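Good morning C.,

I know you're traveling, so I'll keep this short. The sequence:
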Amino acid sequence: MRPFASRPTPCIAACTVAIALTSLAAGCRTPPPGGRDGPPAASSPTAVDLALPTGVAAASEVPAPIPVVLAPGIPPEGVVDLLGGALPYIFNLCRKQAEEIGADGAIPPQVVALPATAEIGTTAEICALGFPAGAVVALTVTPPGAPARTIALDIAEDPLSGTVVGQHTWVAFPGDAVGDYALAATGPDGATAEATLRVAPATMPHVVVDPAEARAGDRIRIGVSGQPAEHSLPLHVYFDAGALQWRYLTTVGPLRTDATGAASVMAELPADARATEYAIVPGNSVASYRTIVQSDFRVVP
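The tokens, ready to paste straight into the viewer:
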């Protein structure tokens, strides 16, 4: 499971989403009028409804899963790109890095950012390696021209691989500073390792949800980047319907990007939101039809 941390950051073209509750018994909503672009809008909404399934419905209340249509106009071949939603929970970058470094023996204390450069609207895994299992490592992240932030990392042994790692998912959210972020990991014995994470402007479309895992009633941030300036952008929402199939729920927005091609929205999850996985897919994106821009988040009990 990916660790996460929620942190207040000024939103770009931001608004607060009031999340409405709808039952799956009513079936799926139809895609928005106006095709892939959705209804036109001059600016980001001040309040929009995000329909999430609520509670735990009986099997008879849930319609039979259907192949998902990512957004009006996107060909069915794009569905396979949406099935990768669970991969970040299976393929752990920090664990893989520890396996590669530790193949030749003991790992000295070190901190690594994977990838070393993260564009606005993406994430990077910050890995603390070479520290003893059970230790708590102080990870200090210093953005350019901003105060440092310290995060406590629990160093634990992975039961599958036997690697000993601590990790934190850093979100390069729209509105964050670009440049070099200084990383320092300090163990309980004073051993310190340093590295750099570079945050760069978006060169392609991205969408990110922070945190990627939340509970009912929590707030999440949804950010898009790499879009044209002053661009109208709806966000299509899907949920995991099981059997490797996703079902369309609703469309948020459209949002309006700023001069940098970014926009963001704050969403409050309902108190009875169903525990499952969701996907956010921007419509009217500048990405090609076969390059699905997607970000997942999970509601846990």
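Safe travels,
E.
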